[in-house]
Amino acid sequence: LGPTLCVGEILVEIVATTPGCGFRAPQPLIGPYPSGAPAIFMSQCGRLGGAAALVGCVGDDDFGQLNLDRLRQDGVETGAIGIDPEYPTGSAFVRYRPDGQRDFVFNLAKSAAARFGWTAGTEALCDRAGHLHVMGTALAMASAWEVIDRALPRIKARGGSVSFDPNLRKELLRDPDILPRFARMVAECDLLLPSGAELQQAAGVEDAEAAVAALLQGGVAEIALKQGEAGATVYRRDAPPVHSQAFAVEEIDPTGAGDCFGGAYVTCRRLGLPVAEALTYACAAGARNVTRRGPMEGAGTRAELDAFIAATGYRA
Ligand code: ATP
Questions:
Q1: Helix (H), strand (E) at residue 182
Q2: How far apart are the C-alpha atoms of 242 and 276, rounded to whole Å?
Q3: Where are the domains of the chain?
């Protein structure tokens, strides 16, 4: 039914290597790595052999080319990615606190990452897309939201499905437009991919079990709840929950786990895999990604994920 479409920021990520040092002193930095939640998601879709197309924008610079090269290498359609002649590719600088928590310094709003909109190319893409995946970061981005607002009814009208990863970072909640957009996406999605308390936020209730019931009752067909090192659980209306434990790995870089999980789950389901199998691949994709430095360096092909699963001796 056509490619999975995602809309939003494309960035490079540069990482400080000395925990606790911040960026106030010179130190070795690593990167640039291709990044941006939609790009990571798409990269994982493409690597698993799912048809995937990204709408966004990069600058006319090495950082933009790095992203385009990687996406194409992973099989992602890049025809609807603009190249802005005036603004540089978006960037994120990541630093680690001594306790392992991350802080980000973003250059997004005044970069090429935010400089795109609805075009004839995007319209043509929507007219053959089979699925729309919406990232929470897009709710706070005028350019991305404009495209999503127009793409959503078109893709649904042709029988396409919708998934939504709230990815509600604290700073996003300061924007007054966010909550109504969030509520709309919860109401429109077939598959919701929350993490932690996003489940309760989506349902507007405190209790997790009641939240699942309310969301399924409200029309969400599947909820894939990401639980970090506790694995993940899929809930559906007329079937018992399916849980997968997490794969035991040494975490080198947590960035991108949720996006790889989502890219793998959506792609496997779209390729017709049953829930339990799709969930195993999604957990493997998330776990494999945290074993590599860089936000999408660990996204795996089917063969790589099979090898990863076999190497852990894991049984679903
Ligand atoms: P983020 O927003 O940081 O990308 P998230 O909160 O959306 O992540 P997580 O629950 O952290 O999503 O990760 C998604 C999935 O990846 C988890 O359900 C789990 O299966 C796998 N995963 C993540 N971190 C680890 C880890 N340290 N070890 C093993 N598996 C992990």
A1: helix 178-188
A2: 6
A3: 4-8+36-85+117-312
Helix, coil or strand: residue 273: coil
Ligand 1 binding pocket mutation candidate from 94, 226, 312 (most atoms within 8 A of CB): 226
Q: Which residue, among 287, 270, 269, has the nearest Cα to 279 in the 3D structure? A: 269
pLDDT at 316 (0 to 100): 53
How far apart are the CA of 232 and the centre of ligand 1, in A?
A: 9
Cα→Cα distances 300→169, 202, 215, Å: 26, 30, 31
- Residue 228 is given by DSSP the state G
Q: Residue 159, by phi and psi: left (phi above 0), alpha (psi -120 to 50) or beta? A: left
For domain 4-8+36-85+117-312, which CATH number applies: 3.30.420.10, 3.40.1190.20, 3.40.309.10, 3.30.450.40?
Answer: 3.40.1190.20
pLDDT confidence tier of residue 168, bands split at 50, 70 and 90: confident
Task: Answer yes or no: is the C-beta of 221 below 6 A from any ligand 1 atom.
Answer: no
Q: Say what the alpha-carbon torsion angle 29, 39, 235, 220 is, to the nearest 10 degrees.
A: 140
Name which residue sits closest to atom 17 of ligand 1, judged by CA: 228
Kind of pairing, strands 232-236 and 222-226? antiparallel
Average pLDDT of the residues in 216-231: 97
Indicate whether residue 228 lines ligand 1 (CB < 6 A): yes
Return the ligand 1 atom nearest residue 244 CA.
20
- Please state the ipTM of this predicted complex: 0.97
Q: Which residue has the least CA distance to atom 26 on ligand 1?
A: 229
Distance CA 283, CA 302 (A): 13
